[in-house]
Specification:
207 residues, mainly alpha, two-stranded antiparallel sheet, 10 helices
Length: 207
């Protein structure tokens, strides 16, 4: 009889995101991070004092903002990415149930059914996509000053600044949620998650 303890069975991994999808997420996150950091140096006086070349920061902010939609547009060449966009764009009865439980602060997993993406992730994806388009549009109005009347530029500046603040708050919440779920982060980093996690958090998902 062998005295060696048997090794525990390896955790079963299942694919969640392809390399193309992870590239889109990382590149978009990088560009968004550059926009947020440069905006902080441009608008917060304490940070602005640390910058010696403000004009360079402005140009980096502008070009990073213009490039924000590019990763998503490039990702449309991926069939898996297009399939995930369809998942994100569809709300079903289970999503309404998930939202109801979230509003009631009901954290029981059986009260929050989810397929590949839960309702919170779908709302975040739709909101950040719309906010990005508005930021690009208002940024262009602020940048190309000789083509628009001053009223347009003033309104665009107001929307751009306040929406930027809102995006910062929402992004902080998004990062906080990610920090609280190591397996979700692993899925975005490596492309795979444990089958146990998928059954627990996304029991309606059929990979």
């Amino acid at each position: 009889m062998s005295l060696r303890a048997e090794a525990p069975p390896a955790t079963t991994k299942i694919p969640r995101f392809t390399r193309a999808e992870r590239w889109v997420h990382r590149t978009t996150a990088l560009l968004m991070g550059v926009c947020v950091v440069t905006a902080a140096f441009l608008y917060i006086p304490e940070f602005a004092q640390l910058v010696g070349r403000r004009e360079l920061v402005v140009r980096v902010h502008e070009w990073a903002g213009l490039a924000l939609p590019v990763p998503v547009l490039a990702g449309l060449a991926s069939r898996a990415f297009r399939a995930d966009l369809r998942h994100l764009n569809r709300f079903g009865p289970h999503d309404r149930r998930w939202l109801g439980a979230a509003l009631r602060r009901d954290k029981r997993r059986e009260s929050r059914p989810a397929a590949k993406f839960n309702a919170g992730q779908k709302i975040y994806a739709a909101w950040i996509a719309g906010a990005t388009l508005v930021m690009v549009g208002t940024g262009l109005l602020m940048w190309i000053t000789h083509l628009t009347p001053i009223m347009w530029r003033t309104s665009a500046t107001f929307v751009h600044d306040w929406l930027a603040l809102t995006i910062g708050v929402v992004l902080a919440g998004h990062i906080g949620m990610a920090l609280g779920d190591p397996e979700a982060r692993r899925g975005m980093r490596t492309g795979s998650v444990s089958r146990e996690w998928a059954r627990r958090e996304h029991r309606l998902w059929r990979p």
